[in-house]
Amino acid sequence: MRRVNEIDFFFFWRNLRKHYLPILGVGIICALSVWLICRYLIPPTYKAEISLFAWGDPNYNNEPRNRTALDTNGRMAPANQGEMTFQDITFGNLLVNDYQELLSSRYVHTEVQRRLNIEFPELKEIPFRFDASLRKQTRFITVAVFSHSVEKAEKAAQVIAEVFIDSVREIMRIERVQVVDRPKVLGKVSPKTTQMTLLAFILGGGFIFGLFCLRDFFHYTLRNSEIVKAEFDLPTIGMIGVTTDKENANLICMPNKSKNYKYNHIVENFLLLQTNLQYSLPQKESAQTIVLTSAFPKEGKSFTSLNLALTLGSNSKRVLLVNCDLRKTEHEYLQLPRQPGLVNYLLGEKTIEEVIHHNVLGTTLSVVRSGPVPPNPTRLLEIFQNSGGLEKLKKDFDYIILDSPPCMNMADPLMLSKLADGTIIVANSRETPVDAVRRVVEELQKFNINILGVVLNRYSPHSAGYGYGYGYGYGGYGYGYGYGYGYGYGETEKKSKKEKKQGRKAG
Asked: Is the dihedral of CA 372, 326, 367, 286 positive or negative?
């Protein structure tokens, strides 16, 4: 899991740039679905309004009354007929609230429905509803009618006004309610197709974007060398990309017997790993011994071990690859018999020379298979650690690569690392959690093991935020490198008169 202080703008921008296609896809699908639903499944709702003005008088019989007021001597005096008292205003405000309650009553609803069914029987099956609201600090009442039919909404607003006026006259004995604005259809109010479509696009894409961010937050992998340096203070000595050659996926670094150079970015990655190893390993006369391990299985450890051995052997170096993972079969694609192997040597059945396969694949590479699966692999590796057989092999080879089991919850890599000049941790840059590699590093450092660095397998410069390009041609070549958000490689083999005349040109 990431640290909280690592969540910044670039964290979200990187996830958006990396997953923009599925985010856009889900957003478009959600938006299209909502648009189709609003367009064809949800019937439109129309709104009609009518405005009423309600005025109340404390005299329910609407008969003139003699208003009085106190004169300067404190005696009752007749008031002007047009004068409005505070009592009138208060009572009028109370009546307006009564009007609103009356409009919301079951009596009015039932009467409105009855009259509509009688006067407009063809609209009987079309549902409708209406709401009454008071305009703030006024005596105006606005009645809004909603229906799937424009005609029903308009007719219902007209009938509601008539029923309300009649109800006020009959129940409250007041005739001071007037229609200010005649019924008017304001148009379609729902569904709001445009707004709902845009909202569905934002919510759908945002939901998937949030899932990617959560996954990146909790599934924190060794995406680039900066993370390796920040988390473990170790160098990244190799970054191996993803091969597209399915036929030679495991033997990608086989020596090229053709005279024509053919660019392969995986081969270049292993050449860079070889160069970094030359500066990382201690200088000595005997063979350099390297252990490759990982946190979990299927991290690309055996793939890296074999192709690193092929790369080292391409310089006429004598390289020995020993499969020390006694629990499972590896390197089956070498088409070598599994027995006799390392287990047979450790059990005393064979000598160390008898279990070595020389000149594998027509190269200087030698391989020792694991042999039959023993009942106690860890105990056999203890024997290998104390047998001195590795010291004998150092005289005959320049490099010895020990393909170790995964380090998580196993003692095998620790014992093998004690025999080696350095240990390399192989991690899947797309899948291996940082916490898992951290536990491996802490376990190795606890025993003072020399960790040469980390190799990032299945590395993607695109996800790490870098990019480069390379191309060449006969009669001229060009090379470019730059930071960017893309990754690509390719080759061009073009013969042109212009290039031949220009000769060699740097670009």
From this structure: negative
Cα–Cα separations (whole angstroms), residue 342 to 111, 352, 371, 390:
98, 8, 6, 11
How far apart, in Å, are the Cα atoms of 293 and each of 237, 260, 263, 273, 451?
A: 14, 35, 29, 16, 11
Per-domain residue ranges of the chain:
4-40+193-217, 43-62+78-190, 223-464, 467-502
| Separation of alpha carbons 430 and 427, rounded Å | 9
CA angle at residue 345 from 415 to 300, to 5 degrees? 50
45-54 and 140-147 as β-strands: parallel, antiparallel, unpaired? antiparallel
What does the pLDDT look like over 267-318, one tens digit per residue? Answer: 899 999 999 998 888 877 778 899 999 999 888 898 999 999 999 988 888 9
Closest to 156 in 3D by CA, of 122, 130, 125: 130
Q: For the chain, how big is the Rg over CA atoms in Å?
A: 43
How is residue 393 written in tokens? 């092999």
Spatial contact of 31 and 25, defined as CB atoms under 8 Å apart: no
Question: pLDDT at residue 244 above 90?
Answer: no
Q: How far is CA 265 from CA 196, 240, 272, in A?
A: 48, 9, 11
CA pseudo-torsion sign 339, 340, 343, 344: positive
CATH no. of 223-464:
3.40.50.300
From the options 3.30.300.330, 3.65.10.10, 3.40.50.150, 3.30.70.600, give the CATH code of 43-62+78-190.
3.30.70.600
For the stretch 155-197, pLDDT in tens is 988 898 888 888 888 887 776 677 888 888 888 888 999 999 9
Distance between CA atoms of residues 312 and 273, nearest Å: 10
d(CA 305, CA 309): 6
- pTM of this structure: 0.57
Q: At what angle do helices 301-313 and 265-280 cross, to 10 degrees?
A: 80
Sign of the C-alpha dihedral, residues 25, 31, 32, 37? positive
Strand blocks (E) in 254-315: 288-294
Tokens of residue 333, six digits: 């694609």
